């Protein structure tokens, strides 16, 4: 689905005796330039760039059944991993209620959503990105079939990204494969705050098949959610500087991806990772999500890089788990290093090996 050429889109929902059903698989993504801070209804404080993952995905099936009383409130049953999940049910219900003008079928059909991830909860992989994007793609597929709408794949994905964003900002980027940009940037034409776009830059072959090995340092619940972390940026003393820095980093990384400048790429992603956690520490009140083993692993990576000159870098999500990034060509050397020296810092030696992916696809 990374190719958004102007072809007619074949809706992926099927009609059933009492409604419609569809299913999509959508990946998570890891931000290289971070979205941290928002304005109003899910408008990012600064533009961000991510890399879509491959094997860390959510699979979501949605069944829409004609209600006995059409036009009544949104009705939802949300099943996660075969069980009801009240927390996610409440979040999805709030999203659906806010969407009933955009997705007309929600007034007339009751929904049953069945979802599961290929990766464990709290593994340091953004589950809201994959789950909200999978859900958005399902909802829009049903909307297209129920409303007999004709749309091309480009407008379908743009609207899916917009709906995914309303569920979770980072989810807007998971609608596309490869490197993705979300947020208005004065240097990137067609960028916008309401939806993501595939990064309109020719990517140098050094980044083809890029790897992301996730060091699961701690699987525990985060003491501060991303949502409240974003809120703390409203009054952050470094807010202005952060907006400027993100804009500069975006240009630097877009240039590095284009020219194959691994060193610049590495410098920017590490700067973004450390800035993200620096912003958390300097919030009011400050908070810490990295842990001693996160720092130990970072030190080991620096030493290994200095000694071997291998292309290896890292980034961090809003948590203690480290994403180790490296080109495909160095994968056997780096994976040997990870299992020999870094896995010891992980919870039960747990490492998830993933890589750049091509984006979501229907599974119905
Ligand atoms: C640190 O997308 O999870 O991962 O919009 O409130 O759902 P909400 O936040 P979320 O924030 C992600 C923050 C980040 C950086 C990023 O993915 O860009």
Broad shape: globular
The overall pLDDT, averaged over residues, is 94
Number of strands: 15
What structural category arises from helix and sheet content? alpha+beta
Helix content: 25-40%
Cofactors, ions and other ligands in the entry? ligand DP6
Low-confidence stretches: 1-7
SSE string:
EEEEEEEHEHHEEEHHHHEEHEE
Cα distance spanning the termini: 15 Å
Most strands sheet: 9 strands, mixed
Radius of gyration: 20 Å
The oligomeric state is: single chain
Percentage of residues in DSSP E strands: 15-25%
Helical segment tally?
8
SSE diagram, text form:
Blueprint: E1 14-16, E2 19-33, E3 38-39, E4 43-44, E5 48-66, E6 76-80, E7 83-84, H1 86-99, E8 109-117, H2 127-146, H3 153-167, E9 179-182, E10 196-198, E11 211-215, H4 226-231, H5 239-259, H6 262-281, H7 292-308, E12 313-316, E13 322-326, H8 331-342, E14 351-355, E15 361-362
Parallel strand pairs: 6-8
Antiparallel strand pairs: 1-2, 2-5, 2-15, 3-4, 5-8, 5-9, 6-7, 9-10, 11-13, 11-14, 12-13
The structure holds ligand DP6.
């Amino acid at each position: 689905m990374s190719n958004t050429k102007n072809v007619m889109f074949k809706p992926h929902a099927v009609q059933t005796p009492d409604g419609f059903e569809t299913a999509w698989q959508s990946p998570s993504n890891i931000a290289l330039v971070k979205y941290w801070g928002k304005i109003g209804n899910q408008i990012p404080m600064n533009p961000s760039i991510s890399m879509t993952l491959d094997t860390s995905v959510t699979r979501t099936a949605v069944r829409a059944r004609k209600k006995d009383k059409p036009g009544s409130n949104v009705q939802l049953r949300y099943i996660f991993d075969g069980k009801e999940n009240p927390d996610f049910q409440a979040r999805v219900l709030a999203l659906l209620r806010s969407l009933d003008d955009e997705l007309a079928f929600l007034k007339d059909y009751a929904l049953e959503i069945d979802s599961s991830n290929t990766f464990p909860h709290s593994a340091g992989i953004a589950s809201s990105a994959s789950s909200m994007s999978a859900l958005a793609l399902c909802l829009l597929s049903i909307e297209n079939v129920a409303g007999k709408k004709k749309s091309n794949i480009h407008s379908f994905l743009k609207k899916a990204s917009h709906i995914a964003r309303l569920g979770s900002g980072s989810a807007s980027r998971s609608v596309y494969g490869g490197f993705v940009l979300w947020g208005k940037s004065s240097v990137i034409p067609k960028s916008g705050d309401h939806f993501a776009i595939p990064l309109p830059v020719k990517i140098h072959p050094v980044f083809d098949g890029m790897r992301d090995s996730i060091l699961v340092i701690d699987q525990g619940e985060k003491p501060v959610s991303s949502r409240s972390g974003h809120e703390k940026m409203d009054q952050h003393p470094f807010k202005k500087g952060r907006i400027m820095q993100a804009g500069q980093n975006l240009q630097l990384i877009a240039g590095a991806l284009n020219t194959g400048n691994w060193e610049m790429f590495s410098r920017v992603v590490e700067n973004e990772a450390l800035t993200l956690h620096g912003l958390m520490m300097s919030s009011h009140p400050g908070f810490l999500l990295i842990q001693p083993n996160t720092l130990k692993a970072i030190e080991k990576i620096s030493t290994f890089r200095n000694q071997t000159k291998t292309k290896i870098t890292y980034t961090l999500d809003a948590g203690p788990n480290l994403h180790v990034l490296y080109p495909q060509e160095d994968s056997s050397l780096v994976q040997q290093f990870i299992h020999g020296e870094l896995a010891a810092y992980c919870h039960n030696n747990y490492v998830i090996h993933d890589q750049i992916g091509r984006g979501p696809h229907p599974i119905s």
